[in-house]
Amino acid sequence: MRQQLITLAGGIAALALYTGILYAGAATIRDRESAATPDFVLETPDMGEMEPADGADDVPFDMTAPEPNDTPPDGGQSESSSHSTETTARTIEPQQFGLPEEVTTKPLERIEPRTPLSDTNTEKPKAPTILQRPLALAAGLIRFDKMTLQLDGIEPEAAERTCESGGKSWPCGMVARTAFRNFLRARAVSCDIAGDGTGETVTAHCTVGGQDPAAWLVANGWAMPLPGSPLEEQADAARKAKLGFYGDDPRDFRQTPMPFDDPSAAAAMDEAAPDL
């Protein structure tokens, strides 16, 4: 009990000391403000004590209107001065600020337009169309979101085509489509599409990464060029080399064993497998 009383008394003493410090600080602040801001007394003179200056009337201002005088003090020279002021004023000439009457009174006349500064008949080359997310439906036939595109200069082969090699039949159309998909690798295709590009199937010349996909298909034997096309020479070279449709089934590794010590063979193994 005694310990609690001592603690309570100590708390009360601390509060009293804190209150005294606050009051002392407030008094010090008030004394500093009163010393920094002296009291200024504004003296206002009494109007009744003011005396007029020597030679001045009791009324400082004459509020009465002056009487009219018909005769000017200068002996009639005011009229001449006003007349001279009117004559020296600058006159306004409307013809300097508007069109003359011979122009405004005539009806409007249409004239021939001027010659264009540049030749407007020259057609600007159309920018190539960039097509995203290509899907090879067959060798030379690509499907996009809302359009099917056929490469110009070749005859697309159907994915259902079969070829004969060594007395065996193999799905060369599906193998050609797989090779074409590996060539595209979901890259953007830049095509020169004529017109608005509407229709079920559009034929156009395209490039993929700066390379002509139609020429790549013909050079690897996966497409036939149209008659008279400059790609016929590459088709003859592919036929002589027995590539693509002109060769054997590339999936049959029994005819040519794969040498595993050949670096090129390891690179071929890293390529995407055909979707068969």
Which descriptors apply to this entry?
disordered C terminus; 276 residues; OB fold (Dihydrolipoamide Acetyltransferase, E2P); alpha+beta
Task: Report on this structure.
There is one protein chain. By secondary structure, the chain is α+β, with helices and mostly antiparallel strands. Among the domains are: 1-28; 129-253, OB fold (Dihydrolipoamide Acetyltransferase, E2P), CATH 2.40.50. Helices cover 32% and strands 13% of the residues. It is built from seven helices and ten strands. It has helices at residues 2-36, 77-88, 101-104, 172-184, 213-219, 232-240, 263-269; strands at 129-131, 135-138, 141-143, 148-151, 154-155, 163-165, 168-170, 189-192, 201-207, 224-225. The longest helix is centred in the first third of the chain and has 35 residues, at 2-36. It is flat and about 125 Å long. Residues 256-274 have low confidence and may be disordered.
